[in-house]
Write a sequence for this structure.
């Protein structure tokens, strides 16, 4: 049998849920009551504009008083008030929004005050029961001949409605606090709540007759009326004890959605979490949340500041927000404004842009990888520190180039190949080797660059990125030296002999040993050996470590490149050609010294790439001491 009907909801079951789980934090009750009071003052202005009352509209005000002895808090507004019928309609019907109905009625009003109605969902009032054992309402409507009304509820679904002795238009909410909510009787705690949630509401909020909110929201003012110091002072107020920001963007649009705000670019710290939002979300100047993960593009989360929008559906889940079309458009708008600002900064204030590059590069690279639209905006202004120096690249803050300029400048020497360093200090020897042969090196040294290089290789599909310690260009090697110094006894080249010496001394069958003559103007200052880390294998290892959230180990399949042109190698060959065995059948002093030198050369090459752990350092020091003893005897 087919049966149809309606689902019944019993208020006696849902009411405890509302009281206990309406909001995540209990202190929000005061935000909701203040917001309702502010809405009431806005509504009174609107009906006055509509000509529905001739009475003088007082300056809006919210007044909060505390009586610690009686455990009572009152919240009073001088707004529109309610009649008995309105109390029955708006208070006794859970989740019935008077704001929604009011906005629909006055949607054609010529002034814009309806946009400042904060509450839209009809649940805010009931947040009072999260802290109160009893709640009373005394209210008098603005309407001519209206009678004052008193409403009382003890936290159950029962209520009483009677006449009130109130004589002024407006509403007073009286809360008798529960025993477990007595911390809200402390004035300093109420002041903290008001500052946190309601500081920028454009209505004075008095706590025991003292105005405690700022009222002025900087983001609602015209940028032309504000000074640099205004913006900095506001930032210091929002984020005390922080360094001043690099620069900021003022947002203001009312089509196709309403959004205002100020976004600050902070100086980044090494421990910054790019996934943690620090932008404060407001709705009509009422603080909502410190987290804007669903409203702000992910790559802009490290920014700071304020976003204020009445178009963000605050009464839905985060998963819904992520798929909301209007929220996605807001994200696109914010990203475009940031991209436009950065492009203008690069074009008009290049030195200022380069001064900030180390801090803003994270936003730009992360944004490029996550948004095609944003990448199209900034791809021409992504810059990289470079070893190339000319009037274009040189800056007070370092030498920079774009990737497009790098490729164009070097197409004759190494077309479609980019040499880069991920650590200019640790890889200084490799960089110097490239610079000596006229090869330009750019720096990609932030934690995000291992991902960003993959992104660039997808965008520039015919370009190969090679870290300076991954493989040496033929231009860095003296090819003519490969066949020099053939030993007539063994018919081996100098390279062959050195390779055998190092292989025998190091006793590491997994180690790949190469011998090449490096090009250096001053051979004595050249490294006797270098460690090479093959690009593809190293990247795979780094990616695996990143996914496992561990530090990448030093690759076992690294290459020891012995520089055959270094003067030390001649001495090493001479030592090895000395008497191989002593009279007792043990290696001679010369042979042992040659082995120690090989190990020391390998140690120095490793130190240039990585630090030793405790055991590795002890072994290195032991070998070094033995080498010094041998040299002292020589």
């Amino acid at each position: 049998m087919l049966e149809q009907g309606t689902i019944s909801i019993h208020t006696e079951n849902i009411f405890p849920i509302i009281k206990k789980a309406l909001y995540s934090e209990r202190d929000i009750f005061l935000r909701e009551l203040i917001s309702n009071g502010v809405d009431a003052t806005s509504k009174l202005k609107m009906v006055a504009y509509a000509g529905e009352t001739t009475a003088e509209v007082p300056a809006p005000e919210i007044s909060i008083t505390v009586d610690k002895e009686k455990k009572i808090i009152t919240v009073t507004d001088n707004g529109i008030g309610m009649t008995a019928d309105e109390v029955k309609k708006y208070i006794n019907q859970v989740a019935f929004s008077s704001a929604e109905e009011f906005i629909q009625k006055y949607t054609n009003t010529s002034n814009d005050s309806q946009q400042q109605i904060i509450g839209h969902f009809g649940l805010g009032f009931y947040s009072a029961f999260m802290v109160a054992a009893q709640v009373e309402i005394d209210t008098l409507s603005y309407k001519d001949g209206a009678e004052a009304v008193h409403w009382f509820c003890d936290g159950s679904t029962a209520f009483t409605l009677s006449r009130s002795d109130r004589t002024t238009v407006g509403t007073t909410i009286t809360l008798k606090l529960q025993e477990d909510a007595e911390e809200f009787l402390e004035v300093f705690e109420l002041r903290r709540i008001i500052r946190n949630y309601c500081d920028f509401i454009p209505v004075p909020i008095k706590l025991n007759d003292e105005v405690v909110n700022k009222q002025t929201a900087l983001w609602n003012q015209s940028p032309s009326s504000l000074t640099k110091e205004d913006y900095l002072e506001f930032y210091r107020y929002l984020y005390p004890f922080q360094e001043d920001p690099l620069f900021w963007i003022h947002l203001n649009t009312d089509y196709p959605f309403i959004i205002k705000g100020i976004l600050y670019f902070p100086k980044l710290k090494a421990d910054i979490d790019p996934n943690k939002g620090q932008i404060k979300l407001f709705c009509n100047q009422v603080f909502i949340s410190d987290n804007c993960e669903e409203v702000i593009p992910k790559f802009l989360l490290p920014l700071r500041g304020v976003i204020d929008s009445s178009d963000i559906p605050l009464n839905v889940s985060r998963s819904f927000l992520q798929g909301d079309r209007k929220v996605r458009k807001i994200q696109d708008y914010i990203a475009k404004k940031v991209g436009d600002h950065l492009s203008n900064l690069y074009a008009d204030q290049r030195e200022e842009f380069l001064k900030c590059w180390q801090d803003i590069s994270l936003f730009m690279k992360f944004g490029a990888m996550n948004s095609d639209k944003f990448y199209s905006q900034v791809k021409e202004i992504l810059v990289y520190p470079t070893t190339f120096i000319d009037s274009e690249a040189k800056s007070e803050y370092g030498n920079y180039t774009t990737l497009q300029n790098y490729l164009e400048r070097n197409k004759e020497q190494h077309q479609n190949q980019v040499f880069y360093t991920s650590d200019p200090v640790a890889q200084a020897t490799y960089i110097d080797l490239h610079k000596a042969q006229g090869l330009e090196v750019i720096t990609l040294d932030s934690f995000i660059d291992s991902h960003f290089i993959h992104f660039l290789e997808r965008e520039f599909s015919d370009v190969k990125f090679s870290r300076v310690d991954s493989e040496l260009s033929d231009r860095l090697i003296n090819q003519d030296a490969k066949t020099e110094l053939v030993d007539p006894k063994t018919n081996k080249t100098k390279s062959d002999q050195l390779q055998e010496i190092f292989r025998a001394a190091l006793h590491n069958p997994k180690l790949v040993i190469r011998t090449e003559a490096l090009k250096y103007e001053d051979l004595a200052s050249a490294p006797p050996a270098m460690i090479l880390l093959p690009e593809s294998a190293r990247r795979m290892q780094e990616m695996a470590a990143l996914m496992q959230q561990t530090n990448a180990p030093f690759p076992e399949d690294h290459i020891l490149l012995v520089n055959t042109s270094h003067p030390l190698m001649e001495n090493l060959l001479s030592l090895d050609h000395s008497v191989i065995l002593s009279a007792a059948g043990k290696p001679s002093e010369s042979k042992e010294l040659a082995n120690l030198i090989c190990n020391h050369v390998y140690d120095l090459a490793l130190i240039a790439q990585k630090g030793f752990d405790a055991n590795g350092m002890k072994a290195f020091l032991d070998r070094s001491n033995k080498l010094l003893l041998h040299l002292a005897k020589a």
About this structure: Residues 95-99, 110-115, 579-583 have pLDDT under 50 and may be disordered. The chain has 19 helices and 21 strands.
